RNA binding motif protein 43 (Capra hircus), 343 residues
Amino acid sequence: MASVLNVKESKVSERTVVVAGLPTDLDDQLLTTVVKIHFEDTDSGDGVVEDVIYPTRTKGVAYVTFKEKTVAENVVRKKKHCIEGMAGSAQLIVSHVSEKVFSSVKAVLDLSVFRSQIRLESLVMDLKMEIPTLCLSPLEANGRISVQGTFLAIKKLKESLLLKASFLSEKNRNRQSPRGSTRRSSHSLKPPRWLTPEATKRGESLVLDTDTFLYLKKKTDFYESTLRTLHVLCQETVDGEITTLCIKNAQGGSQSNNEKQVKEFIEKYSHALHFELRKETLLLEGKEDREKENIKLACKQLSLRYLHVLVNFYKTHIDVIGPPSDTYVFKKEVMELIRQKVR
């Protein structure tokens, strides 16, 4: 019986596509209808849409499930999909549900800490040139700026800023020291290769996507067993969607090879997980207390059956992370359980 159910569940993901780039200036219900009409149109998909999941936690992203697998494949194969929004036509990006994990990460940076060292406008221009895939908002007067991009782009951004901070700090020390003779242009932000965040402190640091890290820690034995086997300690700092690990030898001494080895192992393993996992989100915000409790109870019940799915409970939502087919069907079953209780 279980094997039959698994086959059925996997076919749902095969018939589902991820649609990104949707216009965000339309009402959610209206946009859901527009998406359904678009993909049932003869020129777009030529097939029956079984379900449209929108909104999701990622702004401008929806899941569309078709009645037939071949229709989903044809829709993905078609290169151009456009939907009209209030501000004009929106070019859509359509992919299979199992192709990508966390499509984008948003963060707000406070660059005011650099203000005494460099013109912030120059810093922003350098970041745009260095990481062209990042989307940056206009710089605010208080030094804050919003950024959006793939996790790997955000990771590169954080590492770049850490590098710049280390370099500028070292530069200040050289200026104050009578022996400091190295001079560089104030607009030059390229630090020497030997100057890295790891070089300024003992241990190794690693930046990971928070969802991937939580899955790595709670749903695999790899993380804890690696730390134990190589005798290292790991300080974990969670900052929204990004988690920073500080890896140090548990026994002290000058053996830094273990720290580097653990960093390399965790980095490779988490990178592989990043492209194997998918996240579904169940919204709690705006719902009545009874409905919230029903959703939480359904998630707790199903988590006992779906051993490879991680369920994270937050005040405003619940994140469901795991293999694409499992997380998708997990969310569908949660909604079905809730509907049964309402009846």
